[in-house]
Every structure is written in C-alpha cells, then in structure tokens.
C-alpha cells in the first residue's frame, strides 16, 4: 500500500503551522520507519556498555532490535537482532557477553568474531545441517544483517543502515561543537566520560517527535517546571533545577535539523560560580576542574549548551545533568525513552555519588523535570487523537521571522531566547526525509570523499 501524503501540506514552516497528523497518524509513522529511521544516523549506545571483547548491548534503530557488540578483533559491530530463518530475536537479554548468538527457535547460531568466519554475524551452526540442507547453505547470506555504517564518536556509538549516508561528521555539521560539550571531559579534553550506572528505560504515551522537539530548544515551557524550580533539586540541593545560568538562545542548524538551547560561540570561559556541596572534596573538584578547563581550552573557540537534539531522535543534556537520551519509536502514539548518564571517568567517588543523586532527582521517570514533561506529552497526545482535534494544526509561530545567522557556526541561526525556530528547522528536515529527498539534495556542499 502506497498511501501518498502531502508532506508540504502537513509541515508549513513558512507560516509556522504543523499538522497534528505528525503525532497521531499510523501510516505516517510506518513511513517514518522506512524514510527516517532506515536512513538517518542514529545513536545506538556507548562504548562503555561494551568495554570487553564479546560484550554486547541490545539496542534499537527505529523499531528494529539491534545487537551492539565488540568482537575479539576489537571491532564495534551493529547486527540486526532478528533471525534470518524465521525472525526470532537471537538475543533476548538486554546486555551480556557472548561470542556466538544461538537462536532459541530452531537453533541456528551466528558468530561475531572473525576466528571462525570472514564476516562477523555469519551463520556458523545449523541443526540437521547435513540431513536437512545437504550441508549447503550460504553462511554469509543467511547471517545476521550487519549495519554498514558504524562510528565511535568520543565513546558514543552511532549507526546508519543507508549505504549512501553522508559521513557522520558531515551529518552533524557544526552541531558537533555542542555535542562535544556533552561527551568531553569537564576539563575540556576530548572524551574521557563514562556511563554512570545503567541505562534507564521507560515508555510514554506520546509520539517520539514530541520528545525530540522539546529537547531541541523549547525554553518556552518553563512554566511547566515551576514546582521543580521551587523544590530543592539543584546540584547543591538549593532551590531551583540547576545552578544559575544566563538565559540561553535557541540555536538551530537549518538544513541539518539539529538544535539546542545554548550559547553562541565564544573565546572565553564563563566565570566559575562556586556552589557549596557541604563536602570539601566535591567543592575542590569543581573549582579545580574549572581552572583546568580554562587552561586546556586557552583561547580556543568554545560553546556552551544545556540541552539539544540531533535529528531525528537523540537528545542530550550537557551542562549538569549530563546525559544522552534515545527516543525510540514504538507506535504513532508511544515512545520508549532510554537515558544514559555521563560523568568524568576519573572524578572522585564522592562527585560521582553526588551527581548520580542529582541526575535522578532531575531526569528519568522519577526525576522532577522529566515527570512534568511526561504529563505534558501524554496529555498532548490523548487530546489530539480525536477526529475534531486532528483537523486543527499546531501553532509554531514563536519567534517566526526573527532568525539571524550565528557568527562562527556554519548554517546556524538563532531567533531569541524564546523561539520555536529550532522546531521549525527540525520539521523542515523531517519533511525532506519523508519526501525521500536524495542525500545530494539534503547535504548540499558536503565533501564526497568519505
Ligand atoms: S527462527 Fe531462528 S532458527 Fe528458526
Ligand atoms: Fe522540560
């Protein structure tokens, strides 16, 4: 069934009106799986989830279950977690260690290492092989499909199923500088972060884009978090959600779809604002790490960001709490959220403990701000599913026409502190994917040498 959609009619970013169909329509959702999730670069995990040979972590790309694993040759692989024989999940655990996955249904087995086969994921064991298949099956063809593009970017693992996908760094563009803020060490050196604890997973009855759009730059919904601001959930357990911050700008990357609430590039570090943690070791840590950051970054360009989204469904917090969020699509009206929390690997245990408690007060299903938004997003969805409600588009006119280029960042625009400019950019990108535009049209000017 090829149900044609008038995508431009659904997404009118010139006038700032977006159809509610994007958030409730099942046919549109099915098309997203094919046109967005089977093409875009998606976050699949973090190297810290698979530190040792044969470690695996079961992740998702769209609705496809995938196995992220590190083999004995040190390669990081992403394999489809669906048996080529009849589709059974070959791995039914969340995480573990195994060199071979044996399908529980009829017993086919697949090796991730190159010791037994040339191609990781190939079929290595078949019950009744001689008797049933005369000892002949193409072991590569009937192996687990392997994702062709996998990148380890400062510990975060990304993948795309599209063999023609642009290089990951081209896909990120200058949004990379903002993502770095989440992934780098607090002292400004590249990488150096680890995952604190496990991965939190929970489901929300709303469309996946509702979440990604919010984290792309919705400062306007601050009224929702008044109760969290009044409670003492800040890092130092003072009033407020986080330590004092200047007002942020919605900075978006038109033509790429990414955006966040951050600060324009600058050559100077923001001044250190000491918080009192009631623990000298923690106080010293934050003072020292700030001094090291000023030293390490010197007069280099730096950016700051609080929260952002990489198109289509990865969001991050970068300025305490620090975390990576996946918004996995489940249905047109349900999303599965996974959050991983980051911390400097060499931070003292007292700092890690303090941050763990703070992150959980703030984020995740039990965190105060995330709980506010879960309530918002669920109600947005149930109140938009009715036949009448679906006739009325949503208003995305905040800051419309105020977009200005951001000096020092390719393709970036900002339109004030309170703006839906990033959401408009996000849905323009979504429309390009949904119309099936070619990469050549979607990435003008990218270098073709990969
Ligand atoms: S479904 Fe996996 S062996 Fe049959
Ligand atoms: Fe929020």
Summarize this entry quickly.
This protein is α+β, with helices and mostly antiparallel strands and 450 residues long. It has 13 helices and 22 strands. The model has no long low-confidence stretch (mean pLDDT 94).
What does this structure look like?
The chain is an alpha+beta fold and 450 residues long. It has helices at residues 7-10, 21-24, 26-37, 129-133, 168-172, 175-183, 208-215, 226-230, 280-297, 349-362, 368-382, 421-434, 439-442, and strands at residues 11-12, 17-18, 42-46, 55-61, 64-70, 76-80, 95-97, 100-102, 109-111, 123-125, 149-153, 156-160, 193-204, 249-253, 259-266, 302-310, 314-317, 323-331, 334-344, 394-395, 404-405, 412-414. The chain has a 9-stranded antiparallel beta sheet with strand order 13-19-18-17-16-15-14-22-21, with helices on both faces. Strands 6-5-4-7 form a 4-stranded antiparallel beta sheet, with no helix packed on it. The chain has a 3-stranded antiparallel beta sheet with strand order 1-2-20. The two termini are 36 Å apart. The structure holds FE2/S2 (inorganic) cluster (FES) and fe (ii) ion (FE2). FE2/S2 (inorganic) cluster binds at residues 83, 85-86, 88, 103, 105-108.
């Amino acid at each position: 069934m090829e149900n044609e959609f008038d995508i431009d009619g659904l997404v009118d970013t010139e006038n700032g009106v977006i159809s509610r169909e994007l958030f409730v329509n099942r046919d549109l959702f099915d098309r997203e799986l094919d046109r967005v999730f089977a093409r875009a670069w998606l976050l699949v995990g973090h190297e810290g989830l698979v530190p040792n040979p044969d470690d695996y972590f079961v992740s998702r790309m769209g609705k496809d279950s995938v196995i992220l694993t590190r083999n004995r040759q040190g390669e990081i692989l992403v394999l489809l977690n669906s048996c080529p024989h009849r589709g059974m999940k070959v791995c039914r655990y969340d995480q573990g260690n195994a060199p071979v996955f044996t399908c529980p249904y009829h017993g086919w087995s697949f090796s991730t290492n190159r010791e037994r086969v040339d191609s990781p994921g190939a079929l290595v064991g078949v019950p009744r092989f001689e008797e049933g298949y005369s000892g002949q099956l193409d072991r590569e063809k009937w192996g687990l499909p392997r994702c062709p593009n996998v990148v380890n970017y400062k510990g975060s693992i990304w993948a795309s199923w599209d063999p023609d996908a642009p290089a990951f760094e081209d896909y990120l563009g200058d949004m990379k500088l903002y993502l770095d803020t989440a992934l780098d060490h607090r002292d400004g050196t590249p990488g150096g972060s680890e995952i604190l604890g496990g991965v939190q997973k929970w489901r929300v009855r709303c469309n996946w884009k509702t979440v990604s759009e919010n984290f792309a730059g919705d400062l306007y919904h601050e009224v929702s978090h008044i109760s969290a601001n009044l409670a003492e959930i800040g890092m130092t357990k003072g009033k407020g959600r986080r330590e004092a911050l200047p007002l942020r700008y919605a900075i978006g990357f038109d033509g790429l779809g990414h955006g966040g609430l951050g600060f324009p590039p600058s050559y100077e570090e923001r001044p250190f604002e000491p918080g009192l943690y009631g623990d000298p070791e923690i106080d010293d840590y934050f003072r020292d790490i700030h001094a090291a950051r000023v030293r390490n970054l010197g007069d280099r360009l730096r950016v700051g960001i609080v929260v952002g989204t990489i198109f289509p469904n990865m969001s991050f917090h970068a300025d305490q709490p620090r975390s990576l969020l996946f918004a996995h699509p489940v249905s047109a009206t349900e999303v599965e959220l996974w959050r991983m929390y980051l911390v400097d690997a060499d931070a003292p245990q007292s700092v890690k403990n303090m941050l763990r408690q703070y992150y959980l007060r703030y984020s995740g299903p039990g965190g105060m701000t995330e709980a506010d938004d879960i309530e918002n997003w669920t109600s947005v969805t149930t109140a938009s599913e009715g036949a009448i409600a679906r006739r009325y588009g949503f208003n995305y006119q905040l800051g419309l026409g105020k977009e200005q280029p951001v000096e020092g960042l390719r393709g970036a625009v900002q339109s004030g502190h309170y703006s839906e400019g990033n959401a408009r950019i996000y849905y323009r990108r979504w429309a390009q994917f949904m119309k099936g535009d070619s990469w050549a049209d979607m990435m003008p000017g990218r270098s073709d040498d990969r």
